[in-house]
Design brief:
Elements (H helix, E strand, L loop, with lengths): L5 E5 L3 H12 L3 E6 L15 H4 L1 E4 L2 E6 L2 H9 L3 E5 L4 H6 L3 E4 L16 E5 L11 E3 L10 E2 L22 E3 L4 E5 L6 E2 L4 E5 L2 E4 L4 E6 L5 E2 L4 E6 L13 H18 L11
Parallel strand pairs: 1-2, 1-6, 2-5, 4-5, 6-7, 7-8
Antiparallel strand pairs: 3-4, 8-9, 10-17, 11-13, 11-16, 12-15, 13-14, 15-17
Length: 275
């Protein structure tokens, strides 16, 4: 197999999954690099969940955990998305992809640089387009969501989540304690403000608003104080949103696709496999 036609995506979280789906539907071969213990909140729409479940199907597309490159090839041949455990990005130099996307969303660059692939794309703040990567995709909800930036940075993280149903920071829950979480509620449950949705070392984690529990970190996960652990959607009638790729993720995915198609035309001789 020729690896240069692979799009390598660092992270298989919910925003990354919007990129993966968009590229897959447009005919790209996508491979995901994920950590050994993903901390996704919106687990039902994160292809990286294959690390725990071995397989993860979202919107009809399936990701499969691969132990090595040989398994990765078989999964690609089966028209599925391979997920390799590689938080440090060691496979990047081995596979030498034509396109590398950093969708870790750490709000800072954890090591991706512009020379790792002919096309490199950073998702969200922490990257400088033209220096760290070739392009950056805006992730902040609002007028510029999904915009492709070829020089400069995305809007800096404000620490305030985007507005959904009139709520911003109220809808996202962070741990007040350190320890292993024990979930009481599950994704898709209707919760009421003040209701206990989980326990951390016997301490109650309370719902902050009325709504649908759109995301909660995996049961048993060790969290530190301040760690994001849950997300409540105040729109009571939108249960299905818990299990489908979001408008934000699709918009960011569209931006990534635009960046790839634009940047390939700027490479001398182009990417021959895309002609």
């Amino acid at each position: 197999m020729i690896y240069r036609d692979i799009v390598l995506i660092r992270s298989g979280g919910d925003i990354s999954s919007g990129i993966i789906e968009r590229l897959y539907k447009c005919g790209f071969k996508v491979v995901v690099l994920e950590t050994g213990n993903p901390s996704s909140i919106r687990r039902e729409v994160s292809f990286g969940e294959a690390v725990y479940r071995k397989k993860m199907t979202i919107n009809g597309l399936t990701s499969v955990l691969a132990d090595d490159i040989e398994e990765m090839e078989k999964i690609l041949e089966n028209d599925e998305i391979p997920v390799l455990i590689d938080g440090e990005g060691k496979y990047i130099s081995i596979l030498k992809p034509s396109i590398l996307i950093d969708a870790i969303l750490a709000k800072k660059n954890l090591g991706t640089h512009i020379n790792m692939a002919p096309i490199t794309i950073g998702i969200g703040p922490g990257f400088f387009a033209g220096k760290d990567v070739h392009a950056v995709i805006e992730t902040k909800r609002g007028h510029h969501l999904g915009e492709v930036i070829y020089s400069g940075e995305a809007i800096k993280n404000s620490g305030i989540p985007g507005n959904i149903g009139g709520f911003t920071k109220e809808r996202v829950i962070h741990s007040e304690w350190e320890g292993n979480i024990r979930n009481i509620s599950k994704i898709g449950d209707t919760v009421r403000k003040g209701e206990t949705i989980a326990l951390i070392n016997g301490n109650k984690v309370l719902a902050t608003i009325d709504g649908i529990l759109r995301g909660i970190i995996r049961d048993g996960y060790f969290v530190t104080k301040g760690f994001k652990i849950a997300d409540i959607d105040p729109r009571m009638d939108e249960y299905e949103n818990c299990f489908t790729i979001s408008d934000k993720a699709r918009s960011v995915g569209g931006g990534a696709l635009e960046a790839i198609l634009t940047l390939k035309n700027q490479i001398p001789g182009g990417l021959t496999w895309m002609k």
